[in-house]
Amino acid sequence: MQFDYVTVRGHLIRSCYDFAKKIYNKNAVSPRDFGSDSIRDATDSISDMVEGKIAELAFAQMVHANTALSPEANFNIYDDPGITDGGSDLPQVRTNNQSLALRLSIDVKSTRARSHWLLVDNFRFHSDVFVIVKVDLPDDIESNSNHWPELFRWGVRCKVIGFAYRHDFLTTQTGDPKYPFKKGERLFNPNTGDLIGPPLKSRLNYGLPIGSLRKDTYEWFELFRWIKSSVFYGEAI
User: Would you say the pTM of this structure is higher than 0.85?
Assistant: First the structure.
């Protein structure tokens, strides 16, 4: 497998930033923390959106390195904050100078801290595949916008940690989530059982320990094969 470590180049970081700023200025995204009543300021909200887009681009680079397909992140701006991408962060790929739809829906999650969990809000549990990417941004990026010029110049280093299929979150017997976390509950360290992190804000979350994610070479290439087979070779977009 190639390029689980990738660097998203500076001009792409700028594109992500410009996209996030347009969304924020257009009020096309809710200023509230998802599942919470707390309001984010502009610096916090924009940095969060940029981090998510960087993660998508990092995974797209990894897919390209291993399949020759070029997944295209969704940079659409919706007028209604309630409209989402339906769980497909990479809705199409570019190949042979054509943009073609991808039937497989992929949700790319970002993390910066030493995370123990891949966590998905049940309201957004729509995708076929969930990927988690560590994005190496400064610790205070949510409150300090002075970092951006340097990031536009040098880019951002990322590591694609692993992935899970939708059914990995669910028990085979009942189809219920293996690790449900309700609003107000805290995560725990899967290795020690100690509680970690603040109380969760969303009503219900589906979790998987990072250590149980699919990440070996065979599993990655099985996913890449599925991605290639899900390209819709119909009318070009």
Answer: yes
